[in-house]
Design goal:
The complex is a heterodimer.
Chain A: E1 10-13, E2 19-24, H1 30-39, H2 42-45, H3 55-63, E3 68-76, E4 79-88, E5 97-104, H4 113-127, E6 132-138, H5 142-150, E7 154-164, E8 170-179, H6 183-190
Helix pairs in contact in A: 1-3
Chain B: E1 3-11, H1 16-30, E2 34-41, E3 49-57, E4 71-74, H2 77-83, E5 92-96, E6 110-114, H3 116-123, H4 129-141, H5 146-154, H6 162-182
Parallel strand pairs in B: 1-4, 4-5, 5-6
Antiparallel strand pairs in B: 1-3, 2-3
The chains are: A alpha+beta, B alpha/beta.
C-alpha cells in the first residue's frame, strides 16, 4: 500500500488559509476513525457502501487493506476530518481499475480538501499499475462533481433514478472515470529503443 | 583505474537503451565516476535486436565500444545467442530467465537469472521489465550504488510512473542481492 517515493505526512494549505495534515491511515487510527464516521450526518453516511457508524465495520476497514492501493486520512487539531481511499480489483478483468472513495466531514466540505485528497489518489493510481480510476457520485452533489472534474475525471455515465437518498427519494447516480494510462505512453516512448538519428 | 564494460541486449521496445542510460547516469552523475553509452539497433525499431554498450570507469573513458563485456545483460534469446560468445572469460551473465535459457556457457562465466517479466506483470506493468533488470544488475554487481541508481531512475522516468518503476527496481535489486548472498 505504501508509495515508496511519496512522503507522508504532508501538510496541505487549503484556499481558506487553514492547514491540514494528510497521511496514510494506520490500524491505530481505529478509535478516531469511529469518532469521525459517527460524526457524519446520516444524510452523508447514506451515500457510503457500508454502515461505518458501527465500530466493527471500521475495525475491519482499517485492517483489511489488501485491496487498497492507498488509504489516506486528513487531520486537523488532532482529529480525523476526512478519509480517502483508492481500491482495486485483485483479480480478473477489472484488475486495472481503481475506485476512489472520499468522505469529508461537514465542517470541511467546500473548502478544497476533497481536491487535495483526490490529487494524492490520482497520483498514486499509475504507480500501482492502474489504468483507469472511477468514482460514483449521487446526483445533486455538486461539490463532489466539481472536485472530480478538477482532477481530470469525466462524467462517463448517468444511471437515472438509481439510488435512494435518506428520505427515500430516487436520485441519479453519476459515474466518473479518469483514464490515467496516458501517463505510461511516455514510458512506452522511452522504451521504444528508437533512435531518430538512426541511418543518418 | 577500475573499468567495467557492460552490454545490454534485447528486443526493440524492451527498453534496452533506457536501461543503459539509467546505469550510465547513475555512475556518472550520481556516483561521480565516468560513463559512456553506445546504442545499436536492428533494421526495425521494434521487435528486432537492440543493444547498448555501457562503460563505467573511474577515469575518463577513451574508447567507448564494448567488444568483450565484463557483464552481459540479456532480455531475449536472440541477444543471448548473439552476444554470449563475446563475454569475457570469468565474465558475468545476467538474464531474464523466462525468455533466455543459457546453453553452452563458457567456462568461468557466472550466471544469474531473474523472472523479470513475471515480476513486472505482478507489479501491474510488463513495460517495467527493463527496470527490474536494472535493479537486478545493481543488486548483483554493485557497479552502481543503490542510492545513485535510484536517483538516476527517478530522474529518467516520466512523472507519475516513479512509484511503480521504483518498486520494479527494488524487486530486481532484492532478487539480485539474495542470489549473491546465497552463492
Amino acid at each position: 500500500m505504501t508509495l515508496e517515493h511519496e512522503n507522508f505526512p504532508q501538510t496541505e494549505l487549503l484556499p481558506d488559509g487553514r492547514s491540514v495534515v494528510v497521511r496514510e491511515m494506520t490500524i491505530s487510527d481505529e478509535p478516531r476513525m469511529v469518532e469521525f464516521f459517527q460524526s457524519l450526518p446520516l444524510e452523508d453516511r447514506n451515500f457510503l457502501r457500508n454502515d461505518v457508524s458501527k465500530p466493527d465495520v471500521v475495525h475491519r476497514f482499517v485492517r483489511e487493506t489488501e485491496d487498497l492501493v492507498l488509504a489516506l486520512v486528513a487531520e486537523a487539531n488532532g482529529r480525523i476530518i476526512a478519509s480517502a481511499t483508492i481500491e482495486r480489483g485483485l483479480y480478473g478483468w477489472t484488475r486495472h481499475i481503481g475506485e476512489v472513495r472520499l468522505v469529508v466531514g461537514r465542517p470541511w466540505q467546500r473548502h478544497g480538501l476533497a481536491k487535495v485528497l483526490l490529487r494524492h489518489l490520482v497520483r498514486a493510481a499509475p504507480g500501482a499499475g492502474l489504468e483507469l480510476i472511477k468514482g460514483y457520485v449521487a446526483g445533486g452533489k455538486v461539490g463532489a462533481q466539481k472536485a472530480l472534474e478538477a482532477m481530470g475525471f469525466k462524467k462517463e455515465a448517468i444511471l437515472r433514478r438509481h439510488v435512494k437518498d435518506v428520505a427515500g427519494r430516487r436520485r441519479d447516480l453519476l459515474i466518473y472515470t479518469n483514464d490515467v494510462s496516458h501517463i505510461w505512453e511516455k514510458m512506452e516512448a522511452l522504451n521504444a529503443d528508437f533512435s531518430p538519428t538512426q541511418g543518418e | 583505474m577500475v573499468s567495467t564494460g557492460i552490454r545490454i541486449g534485447g528486443l526493440g521496445g524492451q527498453g534496452v537503451i533506457l536501461s543503459g542510460i539509467i546505469l550510465g547516469k547513475a555512475a556518472s552523475i550520481f556516483d561521480g565516476r565516468n560513463a559512456t553509452l553506445i546504442q545499436a539497433f536492428g533494421p526495425e525499431a521494434r521487435g528486432s535486436a537492440c543493444s547498448a554498450q555501457v562503460t563505467i570507469a573511474d577515469d575518463p573513458v577513451a574508447y567507448p565500444y564494448v567488444q568483450n563485456p565484463d557483464v552481459l545483460v540479456v532480455m531475449s534469446a536472440d541477444a543471448y545467442t548473439q552476444f554470449i560468445p563475446t563475454l569475457k572469460p570469468e565474465g558475468l551473465l545476467l538474464y531474464e530467465e523466462e525468455l533466455v535459457t543459457p546453453k553452452d556457457l563458457p567456462p568461468g562465466v557466472k550466471a544469474y537469472g531473474i523472472p523479470a517479466t513475471r515480476i513486472a506483470e505482478e507489479l501491474g506493468r510488463r513495460l517495467v521489465l527493463n527496470i527490474v533488470m536494472v535493479g537486478f544488475f545493481a543488486g548483483v554487481t554493485g557497479v552502481v550504488s543503490l542510492v545513485a541508481a535510484e536517483k538516476a531512475l527517478l530522474s529518467s522516468v516520466p512523472k507519475g510512473t516513479e512509484s511503480l518503476n521504483l518498486n520494479a527496481f527494488r524487486r530486481g535489486y532484492e532478487h539480485g542481492r539474495s542470489l549473491v548472498a546465497a552463492a
